[in-house]
């Protein structure tokens, strides 16, 4: 039993290293935590986890073959993901300070928006492909193993990405002026847009 679970340690280290480091999701969570608070950002956090769980499971059950066999699918995902990321970057960069924002002027990503973005997020695809190729057990039922590994991966990811939302919350409490908020949101928008360089590079 212990030998059969030996892959969990390396898988945990892999997921920790991939989800604690900066990327599109974590930059957006930092901006959301600062602008909307931790609890209003929670649907965004859960959407990332849910979307990655569905993506990783799908990769193990055959979606990854489609991605690897047809390079045009990869390019389409890169283009769609980049376009949506630039849109989100603009929304973040132009967001007014929380004290001046009306309900219609800004709101955090919903669960479904964050979940859907993972299917156009190249980092999530790379992470899922490597996770399933490197750590999916060969014995037993493939579907059950894939679901369990994907669930375990998101369990490791939860505190890592939540930390970025908490980091944003702490920063938000330090921003006292409209000008400070403008600079912060502009920087977060620029960092989000910069992720496109790595997506298309």
Automatic annotation (TrEMBL):
Topology of this chain in the membrane: Multi-pass membrane protein
Pfam families tied to this protein: LysE
Annotated GO MF terms: amino acid transmembrane transporter activity
Subcellular location: Cell membrane
Membrane-traversing stretches: 43-63, 75-93, 146-171, 183-200
GO BP, sorted A to Z: cysteine export across plasma membrane
Family annotation (InterPro entries): LeuE-type (IPR001123)
Record's protein name: Lysine exporter protein LysE/YggA
Gene Ontology cellular component annotations, sorted alphabetically: plasma membrane
Species this protein is from: Litchfieldella anticariensis (strain DSM 16096 / CECT 5854 / CIP 108499 / LMG 22089 / FP35)
Domain of life: Bacteria
Keywords noted in UniProt: Cell membrane, Membrane, Transmembrane, Transmembrane helix
């Amino acid at each position: 039993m212990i030998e059969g679970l030996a892959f969990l340690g390396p898988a945990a280290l892999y997921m920790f290293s991939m989800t604690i480091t900066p990327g599109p999701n974590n930059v957006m969570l930092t901006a959301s935590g600062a602008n909307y608070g931790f609890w209003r950002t929670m649907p965004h956090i859960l959407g990332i986890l849910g979307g990655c769980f569905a993506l990783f499971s799908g990769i193990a059950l055959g979606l990854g073959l489609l991605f690897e066999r047809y390079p045009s699918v990869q390019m389409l995902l890169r283009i769609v993901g980049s376009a949506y990321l630039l849109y989100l970057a603009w929304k973040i960069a132009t967001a007014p300070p929380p004290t001046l924002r009306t309900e219609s002027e800004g709101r955090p990503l919903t669960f479904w928006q964050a979940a859907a973005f993972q299917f156009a997020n190249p980092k999530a695809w790379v992470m899922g492909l490597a996770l399933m190729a490197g750590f999916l057990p060969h014995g037993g039922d493939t579907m059950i193993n894939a679901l369990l590994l994907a669930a375990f991966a998101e369990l490791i990811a939860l505190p890592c990405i939540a930390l970025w939302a908490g980091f944003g919350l702490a920063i938000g409490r330090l921003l006292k002026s409209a000008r400070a908020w403008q600079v912060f949101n502009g920087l977060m928008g620029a960092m989000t847009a910069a992720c496109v360089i790595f997506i298309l590079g």
